[in-house]
Amino acid sequence: MKYYIDIDGTICKTDTTCKNTLEKYNNAVPIYERIHHVNKLYDDGHSITYWTARGGESGLDLEELTRNQLTLWGCKYHILLLGKPPYDIYIDDKSHNVDLFWPLVSTNSLVKKATTSCVKKGWGHETIIINNDLYCGKILHFNTGSKFSMHFHMKKRETWYVSSGEFLFRWINTANADVIEETLCVGDTITNFVGDPHQIICIKEGDIFEVSTTHFDSDSYRVGKGDSQCI
Prior knowledge:
six-stranded antiparallel β-sheet, Rossmann fold, single chain
């Protein structure tokens, strides 16, 4: 079957009151429960097309931003279409309301199980346990010899716990531009504050647990490239 699926309000939440178009879409928060449903349809052999009205009213080209988000969120699809008309009411003989088709689990439900998303990276992969308006939880798995970019966040504060493996942690002291290196082993904990440039280089394959404030795709500012930018 051919499925045409909207993006905003369907597989992610966007702030409809935000007047800045780029900020509104950059700060979209994925709904992994629904992304899981779409990915299952893809895996079952159905044709998946994401169809969005992004950029229709503003005239901005948001294709690259949207593709990057779909990749980051682990979305599986065949086609991305832009140019969907910005209607108020859509009437069709085959349309479905997403809240009825894929209802989200109620917080009052006795069922608390949720789905996770695994996103491949040049340095390994990350399992996104949850990312909502309050907090984010991830498991970062690094391959031996890999690294991610030297980067910083202006909104997110994150704490890491080394569950397995061994790592070289590099960070920049912004007071004097010195690059400081520390070795991280199992049981070590590091907190990266807002504005702190930091980088991980994997010495021995392993996992880092990350807990943080809400993750936004637009909130990564790179100082130096990592393996994800070199593939």
